[in-house]
Amino acid sequence: MSKRSIQVQETMYCGIDVSAKSLTVAIRRVHQPIEQRSFPNNRNGHRALIVWLRKAKSPVRVSLEATGIYSLDLAFALDAAEGIEVAVLNPKVANRFAQTIRRSKTDAADAEVLAEYTHRMPFTAWIAPSASSMRLRAIVRHVETLSVQSAQNQNRLHAAHGTSYTPGCVIQDLKRSVASLELRIRSSVRKASRISCAGNRHLRRALYMPALVASRCDPYAKAFFESLLARNKARLQALIAVARKLLHAIYGIFRSGVMYEGAKLFPSITLS
To answer: Whose CB has fewer CB within 10 Å in the chain, the N or C terminal residue?
Structure first.
């Protein structure tokens, strides 16, 4: 059954409470009591869950909260399954809904709340990111973690030099650690980055994910991003360029004092 053929009146509504090791699942059918089951949060558990959901031979809509690495593989597995649509909710949205109907807080109750949310609220299907986007995100986050560790060790090394009582073996070990981390950072990508490290690192970090989303979902940002790739720019360079456009747009909003209206502002901004 094609995902496009799903009819709301025929749909089985499902909520999944995700934890590191287990999935608590609640199914809601119209005029029927809620069913619940638990599955391990691993590949075999995901397969068993999909088999169970498809036994009814009716379309299924599933809602689960975004819980980082614990929900990511599950979301991909559900999205790839025929006849199943999945929505990945912001935990704050789910929590606000839960506060209006829930009397207790357990994994089972959370799953029931998510099933009820799936039934009552407008359903927005999750759009799975591409494999290349996931690889890029993993590399960027890994490099960021290594950079934080390197900065911490450099601070320790600076402090160690501040007193004559620090043993030489400690200083040498810190130096080796800093050098090793810097080498790993340079080896995390195939070639040296052409992106300048100048500027505010917090802004770069804050704008990375919005730029990634805009390059996939906003028609103007996507066209700009793809034009850079066509000019043989690296994906990271293109994403930083999109982030810069977003920053210009934000600055223009605050400077002019007007509200951003859809995507109208975006095409009018050019890189200096």
So the answer is: C
- CATH match for 3-120 among 3.40.630.30, 3.10.310.10, 3.30.420.40, 3.30.565.10: 3.30.420.40
For residues 119, 125, 210 and 227, what is the CA-based torsion angle, rounded to 10 degrees?
A: -160
Please compute the mean of the pLDDT values over residues 106-116 and round it to a whole number.
89
Q: For residue 150, give every residue at least 6 positions away whose Cβ sits within 8 Å of its Cβ, in sequence order, or none.
A: 178, 181, 182, 185
β-bridge pairing 22-28 and 12-18: antiparallel
71 CB-contact burial (10 Å; exposed 0-12 / middle 13-18 / buried 19+) = buried
What distance lies between CA 152 and its chain's CA centroid?
26
CA-wise closest residue to 74 among 53, 57, 95: 53
Q: Specify the higher pLDDT residue, 211 or 1.
A: 211
Handedness of CA 41, 42, 44, 47 (dihedral sign): positive
Tokens of 54: 């498809």
220-269: pLDDT as tens digits = 889 999 888 888 888 888 888 898 888 888 877 777 654 444 444 445 44
